[in-house]
Amino acid sequence: MFKLFLILLLFCSLLFAKTDYSDMSTEELLALIGYVNSENEPNLLMELDKRVVHMSDEEKRVYLEFKEAQKHAEK
User: Fold this and answer.
1) What is the mean pLDDT of residues 34-43?
2) Which whole-number Å values give the CA distances from 75 to 32, 68, 71, 72, in the listed order?
3) Is 12 inside any structural domain?
4) Which residues does 7 contact at the CB level (< 8 Å), separation at least 6?
5) How large is the average pLDDT for residues 9-31?
6) Is residue 13 in some structural domain?
7) CA-based R_g, the chain, Å
8) Which of 18, 29, 45, 73 is the most exposed place for a label (fewest CB within 10 A)?
9) 26 lies in a domain?
């Protein structure tokens, strides 16, 4: 059981360390919103911008709400 936990922990750490967002699913990218550091955030948002036309309505809602909140935070 402990080995399984370590393998799962390693997998999760690799997932969050990944900066090549083009290999990740849209669902994974949306889950990362708010968890990436400020240096990687522009790359994440750029990748999501490319995918907006293929997003479901729910995915678009989550993404657009984040962008709107981000605009208000910058003011």
Assistant:
1) 84
2) 23, 11, 7, 5
3) no
4) none
5) 75
6) no
7) 14
8) 73
9) yes
Degrees, nearest 5: CA angle 28-19-23: 55
Number of structural domains (the chain) is 1
In a domain, 69, yes or no: yes
Tell me: the pLDDT tens digits for 40-56?
A: 888 889 999 999 999 99
Q: Where are the alpha helices (DSSP H) in the chain?
A: 2-17, 26-32, 41-51, 57-74
Question: What is the rounded distance in angstroms from the CA atom of residue 14 to the CA atom of residue 24?
Answer: 12
Distance (Å, rounded) from C-alpha 13 to C-alpha 72?
Answer: 31
Say what the pLDDT of residue 47 is: 92
Identify the domain containing residue 43 by its residue range: 18-74
> Residue 75: CB partners within 8 Å, gap ≥ 6?
none
Q: For the ranges 6-10, 29-33, 66-70, which has the lowest average pLDDT?
A: 6-10
User: Of 31, 50, 42, 44, which Cα lies nearest the Cα of 74?
Assistant: 42
Name the DSSP letter for residue 23: G
